[in-house]
From TrEMBL:
Keyword Cytoplasm: no
Protein name: Small, acid-soluble spore protein I
Induction trigger: Expressed only in the forespore compartment of sporulating cells.
Cited InterPro entries: SspI (IPR017525)
């Protein structure tokens, strides 16, 4: 069986409201369990692929400040 984690995560959250997605992110962060990190990575990857260059650059500036 060829299990694709990206596809499973995308399937599980398709149609979720912004509040539902926020709850998923906050719960994953609150738990702090490393096995949840790939799911957050899929969220980021999906956002990144649809964001325009200006949004990506703005996010990178914010991320850089967060890690300063």
């Amino acid at each position: 069986m060829n299990f694709q984690i990206r596809d499973a995560i995308k399937h599980n959250v398709t149609g979720n409201s912004p509040d539902e997605l926020k709850n998923i992110v906050e719960d994953a962060i609150k738990r702090g369990e490393e096995h949840l990190l790939p799911g957050l990575g899929v969220f980021f990857e999906t956002w990144w692929q649809q964001a325009d260059k200006k949004e990506q650059d703005s996010f990178m500036n914010e991320l850089s400040r967060a890690f300063a």
